[in-house]
Amino acid sequence: MSISTHYNPAETEDKWYSYWLSKKFFHSEPDEREPYTIVIPPPNVTGVLHMGHMLNNTIQDVLIRKARMQGKNACWVPGTDHASIATEAKVVAMLKEKGINKKDLSREEFLKYAWEWKEKYGGIILEQLKKLGASCDWDRTRFTMEEDLSAAVIDSFIHLYKKGWIYRGIRMVNWDPAGKTAVSDEEVIRKEVNQKLYYIRYTIVGDKTSDYGLQTPDYLVVATTRPETIMADAAICINPNDERFAHLKGKKVFVPLVNHEIPVIEDEYVDIEFGTGCLKVTPAHDLNDYELGVKHNLPVTDILNDDGTLNELAVILVGEDRFVARKKIAKMLEEAGHLDKVEDYKSQVGFSERTDAAIEPKLSMQWFVKMKEMAQPALDDVLNGEVNLIPNKFENTYRHWMENVRDWNISRQLWWGQQIPAWYDDKGNWVVAKTKEEALEEFWKKKHLDENCSDTEKAGFKHQLEPFLRQDEDVMDTWFSSWLWPISVFDGFKDPNNKDINYYYPTNDLVTAPEILFFWVARMIMAGHEFMGKKPFTNVYLTGIVRDKLGRKMSKSLGNSPDPIGLIEKYGADAVRVGMLMSSPAGNDLMFDESYCEQGRNFASKIWNAFRLVKGWEVDENLENPNKQAISWFENRFNESLLEIEANFKQYRLSEALMTTYKLVWDDFCAWYLEMVKPAYQQPIDAESYSATIAFFENIIKLLHPNMPFLTEELWHDDLFAERGEMDCCIVAEFPKGGSIDEKLLKDVEVIKTVVAEIRNIRNQKQISPKEALPLSLKVNSDIDYEKWLNIVYKIANVSAAEIVSDKVAGATAFMAGKDEFFIILTETIDVEAERIRLNADLVYLQGFLKSVDAKLSNERFVQNAKPEIIANERNKKADAEAKIKIIEESLVVLG
C-alpha cells in the first residue's frame, strides 16, 4: 500500500485505539503467565486531565506496554476517586445555580443530585486518558464509592474499631470554613501571605510599682496577626528566663475590649527573640497554643462558628466574618488606645486545597485511627527493601514521617462519601455497626440484658429504641477508601480468596507523586499488611512536579499550564508522550516547554520519512551484498543500545531509556546506517541488505512502541512487512531481545564515523562541493583493518581513492581519527599558518586533558577507592592522549 508524505496522528490515533479495544488487547484474566499489575492512582471524579496526569499516566502506560510485549499478563486497573470535598463543592455550586440551597435538602435528596452529577461528569478524565493512549483494562474500571468498594471501607472501619484502633474524641484539626469540614494535612496548601502584625497592649491587673520600687508600664505588648481571636485568649505566656518580664510573674492582665482577666504563665516554649517576647495563648484557635493550654490547664473558648463567623462567645462583633472582624477589631483597638503599632509582615498561611479558604485550627469531635502499630510494618518494608522507593532519596523523608506518625483524623463533615458506621441513641450513647439492625443488636448487647430474655422482650427493646436511633452524620476521609485501593479493586474484601486477588496481588509497580508518599502510599502499605498480611506493591516510582520553563509549578492561577488535550490535537499523542518523557527523570521536576512536544513530533516525522525511504527502494535479487560490514555494525549497535535500555528500565530511568532509543533511531539508524546501505539515486538495492534493513526497522518499531504506540502500530501494519493477521499487532509483538556484542567492531566504526565527519568538516571549511570526490591518504597507527571499511568512507564521504602511507603527507590537510592520521591533498595550496594554529590549539587541549588524567591517577585515594574498570578507563585515556600528542607534534615538525 502507498504511504502518505506526512504522518498525520489524527488519522491513526482513534483508529488504532478503537482496534485495540475491540480485540481486547488491554483486558487481562488470570492465567499461567507471570502477572504484571499496576493500579492507577485514581484521579478525582471532579478532575480533568492536567500535565501531572499526563506525565504519571504516560509512565504507567510505557511500563504496562513493555510488560505486555515481554509476554507478561499485563493488567492496568483504572478507576476514579469520589473526592468527598471537591465533589460536594461542585454539587453545592451546581445546586446554587439552580436556586437550591444544600441546607434545604435532606441527605437523600442531596446524594441523588450528587450521583447525577457524577454520572454526567465523573468519567471525563478517563475518556481523556484514552486520547493519551492509556492501555488500561477498562473492563475493570472501579469507583471508590461503588457498592462493593464502599462496603470494603465500612468493613475495614469496623475491623479497626474492634481492634481498638479507631476512637472518637475532641482534637485540634484543620478546619475548612468554606467546606465546613475537617481536612487532612495533605489537603492544606501553605502559601506565603502579606499580612499585618498588630502590637496590642494588655493592661496589667494591680498596682504599677515593681518589687524594687521602680515604676513599670501598666501594660505589656503582644504581637499577633490575628487580633480577631483576642476574645478567646486564655493566658499571656512569657519565657521564665526572660529578665525583661520578671515583674510579670504571677500577674494577670485584662484582655482588651472585652476586659476579662487572664493569667501570665511561664514556659520555655516562648521564643525570647521573636516579636515582643510575650505570646498570647488562644487554645481553641492554634495547635501550639492548644498544647500549651493542655500543659497549663487553661480554659478553651472557641469563638468561631463552622463557617468562620464569630459566635456568641466572642461577645463583640457576633456574626461577622473572621476577616471583616479583624479589620474592625484593629480599628476598635486603636480607638480605645490598645493598639501600639502595626507592621507589614509575611508569613505562611494554610489554605484548603479544595475551596482555597484559609484554614482554621479548630477543636472538633472527630473519629481517629491509631497509627503507631500499623506504621511499623510499613516502615520496615521500605527499610529492608521489600518496597523500593524510586529514587531512594525519599527514604529519609518517609522514615521521618513514619517514625513520627500521628493519629489519623478520618471523619469529614460532609454528605458525599461513606457514612461513618456509628449509631447513637437519644441519650448520646453509641455503637459501631454496619447496619441499623446490627446497631440495635449491639445496643441490646451493650445493655447487658439477660441472654435468657424472650424474643418478645428483645423485639420490644429494639422497637422502642429504633425511632431514636440515628447514624453519625459524618463521612470518612477519601484517603480511607483509597488506602484500600490495591485490595478493593480486586474484591479482596468482598471475596478474600477470589482468583483475581490471589493472582494480581501484590501488584508490581505504583507510579505516583512524592507529595502523597505518606498520605496515600504509606497508608496503602499499612492496609496491605493489616488486611492482606503482605505489601500491596514492590516498587514505587515517584515522579517529579511538572513546572514551566521558568521553574514555576503549573497552575490555573498562573495561567502557565497548557491544555493537554490541546497539545495532543496539535502535536499528536506520541509526540506529547515523547516530549514529556525526555525531560522527566524519576523524582526530579520536569521543566516543561512546548518545544519538547515539537521535538517529539519531529522525531515521529523522522521515523516516518525513514520508513518512506526504505519503502521506496527497488530490489534486485541478482545483486551481491556490499553492506555486510554496515549490517554487522548496526546489529551490534542495536544490541548494545538494547542492553543499555534494559538496564535503564530496570532502574526505572525511563527518560534515559527513551534518550538511548532516540539516539539509536535518529543517529545510528537514520543518519548512519541508512546512509551506509542506501543505493545510489534511482538504483536498486540487493535483496540481502533490503531484508536486513526491514528486519532492523521491525525491531526498532517494537522498541519504540511503549513510548510511541500509535505511530508504531500504523507502521507495523504496512505491507512493507509480511502480511499481518488481525491479532498480529505491535501492541502484543515480542519486545526485542539482545544478542552478542562485538566491542572492537563498535569501536572501529566510531573511528570510521570520525573519518567521515572530518572529511565533511573539511568540505564545509573549504567550501568544496559534496559532489567533488576527494583523494584520501591514511597512516595507520592502530589495529583497524581499513580494507573492511573503506567502501563506507568512499560512499558516504565521497572519496575517490584511498592510499595507505607510511609517512606524513607534506602539504596535505591532516586530521586524526582515533590513533590514525588522515591526509587530503587539495587542489588549492594549504594555508600552512592556519593549519599550524589549528594543530597547536589541539595540542594545548590534549596537554591540559592529559594533565587532568595524570592528576587523577596520581591521587592515591582515587586509585584505592575507584572501581577497577574506572581506573582502567582513565589509563586508556592517558595512553590515547599521549599517542595523539605525539602525532600532532610530528605533524607540526612536517609543517616546519
TrEMBL record:
Methionyl/Valyl/Leucyl/Isoleucyl-tRNA synthetase anticodon-binding domain segment(s)? 633-775
Residues involved in ATP binding: K556
Q: What is its EC number?
A: 6.1.1.9
Its keywords, alphabetically, are: Aminoacyl-tRNA synthetase, ATP-binding, Coiled coil, Cytoplasm, Ligase, Nucleotide-binding, Protein biosynthesis
**A GO term from the CC aspect:** cytosol
UniProt superkingdom: Bacteria
- Gene Ontology biological process terms, A to Z: valyl-tRNA aminoacylation
Domain named Aminoacyl-tRNA synthetase class Ia: residues? 15-592
Keyword Transcription regulation, does the record have it? Answer: no
Annotated GO MF terms: aminoacyl-tRNA deacylase activity; ATP binding; valine-tRNA ligase activity
| Predominant location | cytoplasm
Question: Can you state which reaction this protein catalyses?
Answer: tRNA(Val) + L-valine + ATP = L-valyl-tRNA(Val) + AMP + diphosphate
Q: Say yes or no: keyword Coiled coil present.
A: yes
Give the subcellular location: Cytoplasm
What exactly does this protein do? Catalyzes the attachment of valine to tRNA(Val). As ValRS can inadvertently accommodate and process structurally similar amino acids such as threonine, to avoid such errors, it has a 'posttransfer' editing activity that hydrolyzes mischarged Thr-tRNA(Val) in a tRNA-dependent manner.
PANTHER family documented for this protein: VALINE--TRNA LIGASE, VALYL-TRNA SYNTHETASES
Protein family membership: Belongs to the class-I aminoacyl-tRNA synthetase family. ValS type 1 subfamily.
Q: Which HAMAP family match?
A: Val_tRNA_synth_type1
Official protein name in the record: Valine--tRNA ligase
What species was this sequence derived from?
A: Pedobacter frigidisoli
